[in-house]
Amino acid sequence: MSRQSLAPPSAAIDETAVRFVALDGYMLWATLYCRPELDAPSTVVLFSCGGGIPAVRYARFARHLAATGVAVFVYDYRGIGASSPRRLRGFNALAEDWSELDCGGAIAYLRLQYPRSQLVGMAHSIGTLLTCGAPNVAEISRFVFLCAHTGYYGDYLPRYRLPMAILWHGLMPLVTRVFGYFPARMLGLGEDIPAGVALQWSARTSPDLCPKLTGSATIRTRAMINRYRRVRGEVLAVGFADDAFATPAGTRRLLGAFPGLHAKSVSIEPSQAGMATIGHFGLFRRSAEATLLPLVFRVFQDWALF
After folding, report:
1. Mean of the per-residue pLDDT values for the chain?
2. CB-based contacts of 74: which residues, under 8 Å, 6+ apart?
3. How many Å apart are CA 62 and CA 146, to the nearest integer?
4. How many CA atoms lie within 13 A of 97 on its CB side?
5. Could you give the angle at the alpha carbon of 189 between the alpha carbons of 55 and 196, nearest 5°?
6. I need a labelling partner for 287 at 20 to 30 A (CA). Which of 23, 94, 199, 306 fits?
7. Phi (first) and psi of residue 126, to 5 degrees
8. Looking at the domain that runs over 3-160+218-302, which CATH code has it been given?
9. What is the distance in angstroms between the CA of the first residue and the CA of the last residue of the chain?
10. What is the pTM assigned to this prediction?
């Protein structure tokens, strides 16, 4: 593929809504992005969203990535986006469900649909932890981590540590217990989050991934973390120098959870893309299309993703 072909896509991209089953039978929704002439793509990207971020937030990025000739499957975890029930209050969902059952179901679906394709696990933010905790993660041959971190506030840029600690560890558990879920939309913080996940998130005050912090889910959490040590393959970790959350320290901490992964890390300065800021979500905004996406896709190409 020539470097000129990495410009914003002009080719048509099919976007197909897909309903698939999680490993426990819960029905989930996803969107498959693919060029229409590719019946059997050589590479299929399983894209796992960041925590509490709906799949539609990544649609622009997925279209551009699909234009390079790979199929991209972006799914919503239970309780989020298209996979959310009508009422979130009283809805049971834990991070272990998102990882073991939902991501595991997505991997099983894609392996059935594309038995001969290379399956690449791509994830944003803490979606990296969810992807690598799936019981069938061995089906994934390579990984791409975007803005990867573990959610530990001590790894954030210094000026964000105190306000984020107050928000996640003070306000979040209090409000969640009152409403029966975390009403992020009402607070201008994005997608509403199921109570179980929100309380797990708020309990993460230690730099270590510590099973005792997740209460009744301890056994499942320990099993998920144990699977991290068995993950094998290559990972490309792409971050941005002005990311308040996925700092170099945060990404190093996350990569340290996967001793079996051979990692290549790339950090991009906003000035390299002619941008003033990128941050944690800039890659997925419209402003990234002209310069940042082609730059990141060249990193993907140099790593032989496509």
Report:
1. 92
2. 30, 31, 33, 47, 49, 55, 58, 59, 62
3. 13
4. 21
5. 75
6. 306
7. -80, 0
8. 3.40.50.1820
9. 8
10. 0.93
